[in-house]
Amino acid sequence: MVPAGICSSAFARAFAELAADRWGFLVILGAFRGNRRFQDWERSAGFTPSVLANRLRHMVEVGVLRQRPIDGNGDRLEYRLTDKGLGLHAWALAVWRWERDWHEIASVADDGRFPVLVHRSCEAETTPQFVCDCCAAPLEPEAVRWRAGPGLDDHNYLAGLTSRRAESSASDARPKYAGGAFDLIGDRWTLALTVALFQGIRRYEALRTEVGVSTNILALRLKRMVEDGLIARERQGEHSERFEYTLTDKGRALYPVVLGLTQWADRWLSGKDGIRFRMHHMGCGADCRTEVRCDVCAQPLTPHDVAVRLVSGKELERARRRRKKNI
Ligand SMILES: [Zn+2]
Ligand SMILES: [Zn+2]
């Protein structure tokens, strides 16, 4: 158990910095997929112009994106990821993989083609692997322990996001891209509950205390998470009225998403006191970090070494069958 709770953890700090909701996350993910100009986001994700302008402005303010003139022409500006923004690379790849494995990938091109991820160095379609940087073994939640670091405080970062959430949910617009994936990944309570479940907390009351959320929000989120197949609700005994919640394979597959945000927050948002948590890998006994590697050539996947290639629906299906055969 972490001493100061999930709402003051590194992942919660990342949510606060990004003022995150599904639209904010879609702005960042779009940048990793090559969006540069306002219209790129507008076209690919179903933003309304005011929500998009608002989220882009915020990402510039917190230093995740920067604006620069297009072709030296000072009138027209485009957006590029800064080093701080590029630090979210592991998170973006984790989202990519989760969507690919657990959601229908939406077409992003006008001609109905689909994006696949290619590792430039080995020229193969890649499946990012999230491994320990000390021993290269895949990071599983059961084999990772978190220890309080010097920078841990007890501020509740998630509670402060309330008004932003109300503003964004007032919008009728829904992301065109990514199906409903971002309703899950972009929702702070859903992700906070997922983090609590990764720590082995399973009962309603314990989840409520750990996440510090009101009973009606908690009940709604848990119901939604069951419906979306992230968690299962199980009776604790044949005649018991008590239930436990456990992550399904689909829910467990969100682990790299949490790792990606946590690592980014520790690298970019730590104050003078240092990191909030140390990640300890029981597999090799070392304090470690997450590294993302290509499953084909086993080399690290860096932001500039991955590319998006657009393929037809048939090609996408063929690749999916190939992967299934290899599992
Ligand atoms: Zn290790
Ligand atoms: Zn490779």
Give me a quick take on this structure.
This protein is of the alpha+beta class and 327 residues long.
How would you characterize this protein structure?
The protein is an alpha+beta fold. The protein has one domain: Arc Repressor Mutant, subunit A. The chain has helices at 10-17, 22-32, 38-45, 49-61, 83-86, 89-102, 162-169, 181-185, 188-198, 204-211, 215-227, 249-252, 255-268, 313-326; strands at 65-70, 73-81, 114-119, 124-125, 128-132, 144-148, 231-235, 243-247, 277-281, 286-287, 290-294, 306-311. One zinc ion is lined by residues 119, 121-122, 124, 126, 294, 296-297, 299.
Furnish the topology, listing elements before pairings.
Elements: H1 10-17, H2 22-32, H3 38-45, H4 49-61, E1 65-70, E2 73-81, H5 83-86, H6 89-102, E3 114-119, E4 124-125, E5 128-132, E6 144-148, H7 162-169, H8 181-185, H9 188-198, H10 204-211, H11 215-227, E7 231-235, E8 243-247, H12 249-252, H13 255-268, E9 277-281, E10 286-287, E11 290-294, E12 306-311, H14 313-326
Antiparallel strand pairs: 1-2, 3-4, 3-12, 5-11, 6-9, 7-8, 9-10
Helix pairs in contact: 1-13, 2-4, 6-13
Bound molecules: zinc ion (ZN) (2 copies).
